[in-house]
TrEMBL record:
<keyword id="KW-0472">Membrane</keyword>
<dbReference type="InterPro" id="IPR001173">
    <property type="entry name" value="Glyco_trans_2-like"/>
</dbReference>
<dbReference type="InterPro" id="IPR029044">
    <property type="entry name" value="Nucleotide-diphossugar_trans"/>
</dbReference>
<keyword id="KW-1133">Transmembrane helix</keyword>
<comment type="similarity">
    <text>Belongs to the glycosyltransferase 2 family.</text>
</comment>
<feature type="transmembrane region" description="Helical">
    <location>
        <begin position="282"/>
        <end position="300"/>
    </location>
</feature>
<protein>
    <submittedName>
        <fullName>Glycosyltransferase</fullName>
        <ecNumber>2.4.-.-</ecNumber>
    </submittedName>
</protein>
<keyword id="KW-0812">Transmembrane</keyword>
<feature type="transmembrane region" description="Helical">
    <location>
        <begin position="338"/>
        <end position="361"/>
    </location>
</feature>
<feature type="transmembrane region" description="Helical">
    <location>
        <begin position="306"/>
        <end position="326"/>
    </location>
</feature>
<feature type="domain" description="Glycosyltransferase 2-like">
    <location>
        <begin position="44"/>
        <end position="172"/>
    </location>
</feature>
<dbReference type="Pfam" id="PF00535">
    <property type="entry name" value="Glycos_transf_2"/>
</dbReference>
<keyword id="KW-0328">Glycosyltransferase</keyword>
<feature type="transmembrane region" description="Helical">
    <location>
        <begin position="6"/>
        <end position="29"/>
    </location>
</feature>
<dbReference type="GO" id="GO:0016757">
    <property type="term" value="F:glycosyltransferase activity"/>
</dbReference>
<keyword id="KW-0808">Transferase</keyword>
Amino acid sequence: MTTILLAVFVLFAAINLTYFLTFFSFASARQQTASSPKTEAPVSVIICAKNEAQNLNTFLPAILEQEYPHFEVILINDASVDNTLEVMEKYQQLDGRIQIVDVVNNEAFWANKKYALTLGIKKAKYQHLLFTDADCAPQSKNWISEMSKNFNPEKSIVLGYGGYFKNKSSILNKLIRFETMLTAIQYFSYAKLGSPYMGVGRNLAYTSAQFYQQNGFAAHLHLRSGDDDLFVNECATADNTALCYNHSSITRSVPKNSFGKWITQKRRHISVAGHYKKKHQLLLSLFYISQVGFWVFFPFLLLTAYWQIALAIFGVVLITKGLLYFKSAEKLDEKDVVWLFPFMELFLIITQFGIFIANIFSKPTHWK
């Protein structure tokens, strides 16, 4: 029986180790510097806001201060009940580059962000579209420049990194940022290997031609979430997708300030994963299963005669993960979360299992 237990642990450890060795395709790669075009193509920055008056006042100036010669800002008021629209109009009076789309709830698309985004995209006058959220701030004045210079006749989608603001005294903050970093490691690695499967709406760019070629969000308009990851999963390929993750291209947003709110957010995100392409569902599921098996079987083997073998395997996998996390954290400016990675990883496994169970019985219904 203990021999079988060891064999199963070795299998899970080998699968898990293979994934993390594969992730080094991102962690060890240098950010390719996109050649700057002779003329910088104009860009439409699109921000969809629902009850975001305070965040717009805080973060919109960082968008307007971008050092880029030709851009407009499309502000979408998605049926807010606070004074979001008034804040938008205030900034529009100060800056002529701002265009406002005021969305009134439609019975057929009630509280559907994709409907609001579609109206914003139709309003944009430039073909290069750059998306972020109302609670996001670019971490440099070159964000638009860094993201947009990855466009070329072959590349119509640009995946960026959207992190969260740091709170050094908060364990929840570190957990949120660790989970965000792990997600980014995966989607950048898959894209690096020619199989992009998602992006994040906090920092994502694509062309209007790509949007209309894909018939917008039509394939998943009935789902409340997925305006970013499902769209990318549907149309991104090895040929049309570029990656941008240097420090000047990063955006950061306000993380949830309570565990309950974060769980609600994660439930919404995870609820659409079942609509990814089958190969991506399989690969992501196998990764999670290997994580569970690695952590579950190890403590049992410590109580057997094979404890030394189990400990050696555990050490090899853990060292590999540590190196991967450290190199990735350097790239994404998240180094302060690395040292707690065994605890963070184990806690995420337990949390994700609870979310999967919760989503079986009830699905999140609104984007906010």
